[in-house]
Amino acid sequence: MDTVDGAPARRATRADVARYAGVSPAVVSYTVNAGPRAVAPATRERVLEAIRVLGYRPNAAARALKIGHTKMFGVVVPDSGNPFFVELGRVLEHTATAHGYALIVVNFDGPGHDVASSIRELALRQVDGMIVAAQVSMPTLNAISECGIRTVLINQFSAVDGVPSVGPDLYEGARTGVNHLIWHGHTNIGYVGEMGPPDVRERGWRDALTAAGLTAGPAAAAAFSREGGYAAGQKLVADDNRPTAIFVSSDFQAVGVLRALHEAGIAIPDEIAVVSFDGSPEAEYTWPALTTVQQPVAEMAEEAVERLVAPTASDDFSRYPTKLIVRQSCGCGMPA
Amino acid sequence: MDTVDGAPARRATRADVARYAGVSPAVVSYTVNAGPRAVAPATRERVLEAIRVLGYRPNAAARALKIGHTKMFGVVVPDSGNPFFVELGRVLEHTATAHGYALIVVNFDGPGHDVASSIRELALRQVDGMIVAAQVSMPTLNAISECGIRTVLINQFSAVDGVPSVGPDLYEGARTGVNHLIWHGHTNIGYVGEMGPPDVRERGWRDALTAAGLTAGPAAAAAFSREGGYAAGQKLVADDNRPTAIFVSSDFQAVGVLRALHEAGIAIPDEIAVVSFDGSPEAEYTWPALTTVQQPVAEMAEEAVERLVAPTASDDFSRYPTKLIVRQSCGCGMPA
DNA sequence: TTGAAAGCGGTACCAC
DNA sequence: GTGGTACCGCTTTCAA
After folding, report:
1. Which CATH code for domain A1-58?
2. In this structure, which of A175, A316, B137, B188 has its CB flanked by the most CB atoms within 10 Å?
3. Which residues lie across from A152 on neighbouring strands?
4. B126 with A72: Cβ contact below 8 A
């Protein structure tokens, strides 16, 4: 018993094509790459025919070795289950594909998988550039500079020395969201954010409140997940000083907050209003639909790959403005 | 003005390491790959030191060219925005990483991007294997056999000639879901499914009904998206013969159905109960939480990768049983 | 235990 | 317009 297609079936190479078409390997190259030398139409046809017959496809590894680049970008994301990163991945893929690049995306939510090792892994695979969607720490920065591969930070929240980055204006975004809640007349506005070092969004929340002469409502930090948001929501509901509105720093967590409120029998937005951050597609289909501060993911992704494709000397930080998407969870009712 | 790091900085190669360590290139190879020849401890140390100093990392393209494989798998998915495929991608990545493979995932929801061309694109990049998560058609099958790359079909619903595949038992799954609704006492059970050729789940829905002596409720086909589900939900709500329960063929669409019901002011599950299919993480956080027929994504992904890593001769179809996850949308109330 | 050298499959220069 | 050929960086056999 043998394999189904009995043929030993070595894949056809440039040399096979050349032999079949009766030309030199060089000419095959010229035809395939439409250059750098011109090829006579008749010869060209013969080569094309040979390629068709032999089912020839150029070996990407050989080409990469010779010309020194792979036409692949690496993408590092924290958690590919987060709808925001899902959306980011989508637009990144579309843009990269449009430029002829494929994406290797690695996420480091697995065990023993941190950002730095993900970066090194990608470097080994000779990607032409990397897009890192994570808060960078020192080891990460070291990994980036060591590997010597052009990298752009996305979803980064402030300038980082020596590495170009693009990210949303978190501070203004948070203020916009909170201000909308204030506009609705709320005076006790809570906050749900990630664990870890204090976030710019939290500052935005606090500053918006202060500017309006309000004091900060209760805040809860939780894991960056639906579950985390759920736990945080429960905490806020049980708070002695239960807020009448909550600003959540991500859609991902907001979904969990919504669930906590529903389970507690709290009417949204009448008893507690919610505004979140990100503007991912999932936010449109929660109940009630989330009013959310939207990041311009597509634009940011585009700039990120553009910066990889056509590197400029500048390594500055592009800060993108956010946009408030008004739906129902804030109390604005159905759109007209 | 020059680049920040003035060095021309050619990346160190095996030859540089050899020179620095005062050994031959071969020895560098032996050290790096721990074989196939042994290296004297002292020499080994010298080489390691040189590698460290020079920041040497082997060139993956050259290695791939030489040994003939890339340690990369290609993954083809229809829509990376669908939470089911998100989850699939996650587990696929974890399993593949565990086996030392990286993933290039392409999705063909973009313009001019069909399955066949995605497959060819991956073939060009010399992936060692492919996982295709799509209903395959003739052109797809042709693309697969032409490119001569080991492929396993995942999320496939029946055996396909000559290509190994793994998928859930859609028919039994659908019956399970519908039977649960029947158990709840419903007699008018509607269906929401994808556009296109009639689906096995639809048959499961119909057969379960028939077996219980019931007639099929209204059915609506819609785009495979949240929006599609929303539209289908609206249609069913407006139906002259409005069902008291709906079986939705995917969580993705069910989210939209839920929204349509909420907007129509219909109580879920009291006025209309809902059971869906897939069991993606998102389904746990809808309101009310979706009772759903869960696919064993992790197991299926694992088998798919395993079949690529250690190809067996068999090209059969592994059908996985599904599991009913009871939550609230069916009428079962809060868990104890 | 180490080294020399033959490729892997392309690219593109240089000569014709 | 075409062909010969020297590399790209690595793996591995074979000889020392």
Report:
1. 1.10.260.40
2. A175
3. A131
4. no
